[in-house]
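Risk mitigation, structural track. In case the binding assays with fe (ii) ion fail to produce interpretable data, a predicted complex structure has been prepared as a fallback.
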Amino acid sequence: MHKEYFINTLTPESSLTDFFLVKGISIRTGSNRKMFLDVILGDATGEINGKKWDVTEDEAIVLDQIKEGDLVRIKADVTEWNGLLQLKVLRIRKAVKEDKLEMADYIKTAPEDPAAMFDYVLNSAEHISDPDLQGLTLRFLRENREKLLYYPAAMRNHHAEMGGLLYHIKRMLMTGEKMCEIYPFLDRDWVVCGVILHDMEKLNEIISNEWGISPGYTLEGQLLGHLVQGVKRVDRMAGEAGIPEEKALMLEHMILAHHYEPEYGSPRKPLFPEAELLHYLDMMDAKMYDFEDALAGTPPGDFTQRVRTLDGRMLYKPTFNKDNE
Ligand SMILES: [Fe+2]
Ligand SMILES: [Fe+2]
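Fallback model:
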């Protein structure tokens, strides 16, 4: 079955019939007391929200069978709402065996081979010279290799794709290594260890299946979040390994401070330069990902839809760009 419509190239006021992956689904009741279906659809190029209005009781029973991770066939109109594209779903049904679909065609994946990315990260960890930091980092990598190969870095935001967390760590490491050359007063050990461990507890914050599709957060993730979870985990691991208190606290501080602002979950701002750098490496990688992702399907000379993660900006795709020549 060939796909005809890709999410990142849809245009408003068009219609489509095609298969998509369900990434989130719920039946809700509107202010008019009528039920509607709220669905997040994905393919290899992106995600789009869909609404099916005026759902009847009988229909709701059928729609209730559709779950996150299912492939569905959709007939819909492409509309625009609040500067964002949305599908007005007219018909939706679960895909069946006869549709002959390949799951991999509908999954967004990081562009590099997961095993190679893992080896890159492992190699960086092996070059940490402090034995305590190296021990913690290697233990985390060895115990979580399998999950790291497919885990997304987020449910919705940057790197919400198969292998996204590893891709995020790998590119932060590449930038971090360069930064250590430019600012030789930085301690590479802390930079590398901080980068590899900063989002370690996303593995226990986000729920994900082996396709990197996430239906939601764990209870611990909802109540604590990956910063506090990370602090707890490092504290436990450091205790088990008998690591000096100051080292354990520094690493916990790096994790705790990497979101920088209290409103993003950090109760402390970074208090040493490697912790400050960690925040910028994290931000830069997330932002660059969002720019690249949003512009991927946009023709030169056009603007994107509003990008929620970039404060609603509509980005411009230049005509003069190396990729267009
Ligand atoms: Fe984070
Ligand atoms: Fe991160």
